[in-house]
Amino acid sequence: MQRMMKYYQKYAELMRGRYGRFDQINKALLIFWVLMLVFARWIPFYLGNILALIALGLILYRFCSKRIYPRSNENQKFIQMIDRIKDFLKGKKGTYRYFKCPECKQKMRAPKGRGKIKVTCKNCQTQFVKKV
Length: 132
Prior knowledge:
alpha+beta; 2 domains; two-stranded antiparallel sheet; 54% helix; elongated
C-alpha cells in the first residue's frame, strides 16, 4: 500500500502545473487513434499506424502541457466548431445575426430569418431598418 502511495505522490508531483484534462479534443483524438488501429491493416504504406502514433502523441502532448490556457482555448474553439458542424448538418444556419448601430456603433443582435425589421438602439435610441 505504501508503494502505491509513493507512486501516486510521484505522479501528482509530475502533473502539478500541467493541463491534465481529458477534454473533448483528447476524446476525439482517442477515438481517431482507436479507429486508426482498427483500420490500419487496410490502409496502405503504414499510413494508419503513422496517423495512430501522431494522434497518441498529440493526446500525450496536450495532457502533459504546462500551457493550460492555450489548451483550454483550443478545446473551446473545437467545441464551437463541432457545434457549427452539428447546426449545419441539422439545417440551422445560426440563431442570430449581429450588426452595429450606424450612429454609436453599439453591437446588437436579432434573430435570423425575420426579414426586414425596425431596430431601436438601446444606447442612443436611433431607429433604423435592418434585414436579418
